[in-house]
Amino acid sequence: MTSLAFLPPDPAVLSKRDMIVADLKDLIGKDCILSDPRELTPFETDGFIACRNLPLAVALPRSTEDVAALMKYCARYSVPVVPRGAGTSLSGGAIPQQDAVVVALTRMNRILEVDLPNRCARVQAGVTNLSISDAVGGDGFFYAPDPSSQLACTIGGNIGMNSGGAHCLKYGVTTNNLLGVRVVLFDGTVIELGGKALDAGGLDLIGLVCGSEGQLGIVTEATVRLLAKPEGARPVLFGFPSAEEATACVSDIIGAGVIPVAIEFMDKPAIEICEAFAKAGYPMDVDALLIVEVEGSETEMDAMLKSIIDIARRHGVKTVKESQSAMEAAAIWKGRKSAFGATGRIADYICMDGTVPLSELTNVLKGTYDICARYGLRVANVFHAGDGNMHPLILYNINDPEEAAKAEAAGNDILRLCVDHGGCLTGEHGVGVEKRDLMRHQYAEADLVQQMRTRDAFDPQWLMNPSKVFPLEGRQR
Ligand SMILES: Cc1cc2nc3c(=O)[nH]c(=O)nc-3n(C[C@H](O)[C@H](O)[C@H](O)COP(=O)(O)OP(=O)(O)OC[C@H]3O[C@@H](n4cnc5c(N)ncnc54)[C@H](O)[C@@H]3O)c2cc1C
To answer: What is the residue with the minimal CA distance to atom 16 of ligand 1?
Structure first.
């Protein structure tokens, strides 16, 4: 993670800022530009609340044309631009820099087309993740990537971060479910990538845009894949005597070639926090919990579950509890999906997002406990175990600078540990401001330079979401 000191506003540039605000209002309308500091406050941070900074202005465009006009203007006057969806990023991806214009897509929230014969939907970037499944659920379809923030987060933000979720073990993350995008480049040029047909020729620019954290352009529309709902789905709780047995069980399940829809892990602190909040029916006499969801026909689910139970027994499973009704299944997922919010009730926290090969889960989890103990910090672990995507929630007091520094240092150590065990810095939350300096731990200079050259090709002035992703020293302007 990065120490985050922003420069105070320079009085000499204030009049230039006023001019920019007036011009932006002329461009897309007064009611689409916020500039009063009280209106700007909600945009000074995102889910990474340790860092904040007021933007120059916030633009709330209504169309791709509005976005193109904004970008053309900002390129001409070298004004940095920060694309934003719902601002739920946990890595500070949507936090503005000094004198940046935040372009928030939340007014572009229409589902433009549902095309069931082609199993896809075309949506504006500000549509929330869950609203796509809500719109097509009645017809027996759904949109698979399901971040726990899906009630609030937008498709544009999901594309920015290549977001995942509990059910991505089987269905893949955003990039695996994205067929096309309309993107406004830094100078206002609009490009269309992909569409309803599979696998266009040429370079995979959709793959490049997905996960580019708002640095290659602003996505204004997306065509996403729709999947048919399974015949049935059953989440099952597996309680283990230790975290080590639970994580070892995960790699044995996947290693046996059994791929359920989801395998989520919770350690004891996480079980207690989530159960107190959601009354999900989690067993309280175990040290670790796996939520394993199987789906298909009753026969398919029974067969898969039998294999999983056999493997779990070899790891001393204490409790196996199958959900008996839709209500029980919903309660199990409510507990898991509200884990971050429930943790926020008891303490401030930073959520790490390292990913490791499954065979390293046990070692890295043990290392995580050791690191937090060394710093004298509490930690709760709740994560997408089937993907090896770990989310230690390091608890601290944001008003205690010493403890906040310790939390940051512990987070850095955990991410380095993930990389040292063959993993990477981020599974789904992106690099943002949080992990930009750790990129040097993951990548050799030549790897980073090649990534920065690619960025150069899209945004030669580095105006798009600056000071994110890449280490501050080096080529970043
Ligand atoms: C409680 C909670 C639970 C979460 N659970 C998960 C989870 O399970 N899985 C997961 O992956 N993430 C999770 N997250 C993180 C976060 O919700 C995701 O990163 C999400 O995709 C961000 O969407 P957003 O609309 O809030 O985007 P923002 O936070 O506004 O922006 C995220 C990034 O995308 C860029 N961006 C936004 N819109 C656009 C656009 N239209 N064009 C180009 N770039 C754009 C921004 O510049 C920024 O870099 C969680 C967050 C919270 C607070």
So the answer is: 89
Distance (Å, whole) CA 183 – CA 105: 13
Instruction: Indicate whether residue 467 lines ligand 1 (CB < 6 A).
Output: no
Rounded-to-integer distance, Cα 149 and Cα 139, Å: 24
Instruction: Give the residue whose CA is nearest to atom 15 of ligand 1.
Output: 89
pTM exceeds 0.85: yes
pLDDT, averaged per 10 consecutive residues of the chain (477 residues), comes to: 51 79 97 96 94 96 98 97 98 91 98 98 98 98 96 98 95 97 98 89 94 98 97 96 96 94 97 95 97 96 96 97 93 94 94 95 97 98 95 95 96 98 96 95 96 96 95 67
- In ligand 1, the atom with minimum distance to the C-alpha of 427 is 11
Q: Is 174 in the pocket of ligand 1 (CB under 6 A)?
A: no
Domains of the chain listed by start with CATH number: 11-104 (3.30.43.10), 111-228 (3.30.465.10), 233-339 (3.30.70.2190), 347-436 (3.30.70.2740)
| Beta carbon of 427 within 6 Å of any ligand 1 atom | no
In the reported structure, the alpha carbon of residue 91 is separated from the centroid of ligand 1 by a whole-number distance in angstroms of 9
